[in-house]
Design a protein that fits this description.
Number of helices: 3
CATH architecture: 2-Layer Sandwich
Number of strands: 7
Radius of gyration: 15 Å
Oligomer: single chain
Shape: globular
Length: 124
């Protein structure tokens, strides 16, 4: 049974693109250029929900990305020392601190869900 639990933990972290924890996070910025919105979130319950979605992103490293399919959406995560981790996603690709990854469909949906839920257009 212990081997099964350990195997699950190893496999679940194998293709993760980022590791984030609530205790280390000060706030998050959501930036979308297509509708010129930026939202800063520092509420702990909202932060927890966002970080759970971000922490579950999975994909593979890639060097094949050449240009943006659409304007990127950004999530900036600031730790307690205000060091920024930048995530820029366009289409199926995400850039995290200079490294490109190709996301699976489930991860693309998770990233987009964060913007749908927390980055509201002022006209809505």
């Amino acid at each position: 049974m212990l081997l099964l639990i350990l195997s699950y933990k190893v496999l679940s972290r194998r293709n993760k693109v980022i590791y984030v924890e609530l205790k280390d996070t000060s706030y998050v910025e959501l930036i979308r250029f297509t509708d010129s919105t930026m939202t800063t979130i520092n509420d702990k319950s909202k932060l927890r929900d966002i970080l759970i979605e971000i922490d579950s992103l999975s994909g593979e490293k890639t060097t094949e990305f050449t240009e943006y399919a659409s304007p990127p959406n950004f999530i900036n995560i600031y730790d307690k020392n205000f060091k920024k981790t930048e995530l820029a996603k366009t289409g199926y690709f995400i850039k995290i601190n200079g490294q490109w990854y190709k996301l699976d469909q489930k991860s693309v949906d998770r990233f987009d869900r964060v913007f749908e839920k927390y980055n509201k257009n002022p006209s809505e």
